[in-house]
Amino acid sequence: MQNNKLKYFLIICALLMFTNILVGTLGAHLWHSQLMLNNGVANFATARDYLFIHTLSILFLALLDNKFPEGRFNWVASLQLISIILFSGSLMLYALTGEKWLSNITPSGGSGLMLSWLLFVWRACKIK
To answer: 99-118: string of b/e by CB count within 10 Å (b at 16+)?
Structure first.
């Protein structure tokens, strides 16, 4: 079962990295005028950066979970996955559309990311 979890997270990370490159390219070229119109360039860049960093983190956590199953790092990776979708997804959509209600979702994603790092500390303490 352990290899299935690793495979799942490796595929997810590859897709997230692909998505990061795709939206980064679209944001720099195709969507740039829309982002300028909504004053969303900085928000879009922040969302892209967080997506990149936390995709690497999820990859690292998946590898840790494979090596130290007692640490249950897949919990941390799962929380980061949900949180980065909420954080980066809502922030990118807000930057593109200017829809204010989307910006209300972003803090829950950010809180989830902070919580995931505390969960990481707790799970790391469980390694024997």
So the answer is: eeebeebbeebbebbeebee
Q: Which amino acid is at 20?
A: N
Using the predicted structure, report yes or no on whether residue 41 has a pLDDT greater than 50: yes
Distance CA 45, CA 1 (A): 37
The whole-angstrom separation of Cα 45 and Cα 53 is: 12
The domain limits of the chain are 2-124
**Whether 28 contacts 36, CB under 8 Å:** no
For residue 21, is it left (φ>0), alpha (ψ between -120 and 50) or beta?
alpha
Q: At what angle do helices 2-28 and 73-97 cross, to 10 degrees?
A: 20
Please, are residues 122 and 65 in contact by the beta-carbon 8 Å criterion?
Answer: no
Report the predicted TM-score, pTM, of the whole model to 2 decimal places.
0.90
Quick one: how far is CA 56 from the chain centroid?
A: 9
